[in-house]
Amino acid sequence: MLELIHTATLLHDDVIDAADTRRGQASSNRRWGNSMTVLAGDWLYMESFRIALGERNFRILDVLIGLTQKMVEGELLQLTRLGRLVTEDEALDIARRKTACLFAVSMQLAAILTGKSTDDEERLTTYGLNLGLAFQVIDDLLDFTASAERLGKPVVSDLREGKVTVPLVIALEATPAGRAKVETVLAEKGFRSVKPEEIVALVRESGAVERTRARAAELTAVAAHSLAPFPDSASKRALEAIPQFVLSRDF
To answer: Between the CA atoms of 162, 167, 173 and 174, what dihedral angle is there, to the nearest 10 degrees?
Structure first.
């Protein structure tokens, strides 16, 4: 159910971003056009809610509707901030709505379906939210540190699309002189006067890579701490291992 919603958001994101590739392959909108891609995304949304209706549980529907609204709000917020500098809090708020809420609801629905207590549901939701935020922060960092081959898309593609993410915000806090270069890229809507390599160098030389990883580690620590009250089990150990994977991923 949630994977269908996730896939639907990816289809719609590619249309909104006018993307050509998705994980190194031609994006759906490039293959079949915007109209077909939007309709396919809409169908996936409806199919997800059809599955949810099968549970005959209004709480599940309420959570899913709230999730969908938050993800759309995140996309709208991002659109209003395209082409301009943002604060770290603003960047994290977009990440929270667009990505982390999906992680949170994945955990919350599992708690609801298995009859967990309100406290346990809150702990699992907290785990998902912070894990999702850490995942997105690392994903944004990879835009500056990974190769195009590993990413399956051009490096610094977020800035090319007018998006200023957490690593770049942190870099500019440490190196205010780089602000002019970033503003030039945003104004030109691409890398004409400024090369992508210059922005990558700005992030690396400012210490933003290490500070961004540290920020993600703080988030995963909160996620891990929320699991402490649960008794030891194979499931708990699996959940405890995921944050380290998120921090160490390189694609």
So the answer is: -130
pLDDT tens digit string along 153-196?
Answer: 788 999 999 999 999 999 999 999 999 999 999 999 999 999 99
Q: How far apart are CA 239 and CA 95, in angstroms?
A: 21
Contact 28, 37 (CB under 8 A): yes
Q: Is the pTM of this model over 0.85?
A: yes
Q: Which residue intervals of the chain are DSSP H helices? A: 2-17, 28-32, 34-53, 58-81, 88-95, 101-113, 118-145, 148-151, 157-160, 166-174, 179-188, 196-205, 208-226, 234-248
CA distance 222 to 129: 10
Q: Which two tokens stand for residue 100?
A: 């982390």
Q: Does the pLDDT at position 151 exceed 90?
A: no
Element (H, E) at 21: strand 21-22
Q: What angle do CA 175, 93, 238 make, to 5 degrees?
A: 100
Tokens 């944004």 -> residue: 140
Paired tokens of 50: 């059809």
Q: Two tokens at 161?
A: 């699309």
Which residue segments constitute the domains of the chain, with CATH numbers given? 1-54 (no CATH), 58-248 (1.10.600.10)
